[in-house]
Amino acid sequence: MKDTNLIMTTATRKLFPTLGLAICMFFAAQVAKADNYVFSINNFGQVGNLGTVTTTLSGNNILVTVSTSPNYVIHGAGVGFNTLPGFTGITIDTINPASIFSADLSAHNFDGFGSFADSVASNQSTAQARASNTNAVSFLVHTTTVGGFTNANQINDFAVQIAPLDANNPNTGFARSTLDVGVNPTGTVPEPASMLLLGSGLIGAAASIRRRRAKK
Asked: Which residues contact 27 (CB under 8 A, 6 or more apart)?
């Protein structure tokens, strides 16, 4: 019995590093739920990236954070976005700053970049946005589709009405997002099914150890 216990203890110790690695991979997958985009295309002759968008999976919802590059502001139509096909019943809340932006769930044309189904619109004119340096907004997007959102990239198409902060620069217009490949080389994150499979494997391994101990 003593030798058997020793063998079981040794086997268990050998299994622990594998379990530990699997657990680390599991929680790393849980964290890796964000995608990053840049406003790299615009229709008013500006050069370079005019801002960034980060989408983060929060439960079954997606948190969207938009920031302009220094010396640009958001105004007018604000930020428009499209979800992937199949998601319905879109709602928006937790808008910050709520004193400037509000949810608009009707489609709008962002000049030069087509129609965007939903948006957070600004109540500021260009002059007002410049005066308050309104350069960021965040909001939470929900869907009534069964299961909700499962991946941050299920909202991946954005446009913004934007203007230079400098009032002496008369150029204003719209910009559209593209995936920031420098931050997201593959643009993918682990699917929930993969994480469920990993979790099931961990549970199975633990149960196997308990059964072996019980038989001895």
From this structure: none
Rg (CA), the chain: 24
State the Cα–Cα distance between residues 182 and 37, nearest whole angstrom.
10
What are 15-45's pLDDT values in tens digits? 455 545 444 444 444 444 799 999 999 999 9
CA distance 132 to 136: 11
CA distance 180 to 183: 6
* Whole-number Å distance between alpha carbons of 181 and 85: 23
Three-point CA angle 50, 77, 135, nearest 5°: 40
Distance of alpha carbon 150 from alpha carbon 18, whole angstroms: 27
Contact between 90 and 141 (Cβ < 8 Å):
yes
> Could you say which DSSP state residue 153 is in?
G
User: How far apart, in Å, are the Cα atoms of 215 and each of 1, 14, 79, 208?
Assistant: 11, 20, 62, 11
Q: Which CATH architecture does the domain made up of 33-186 adopt?
A: Sandwich (2.60)
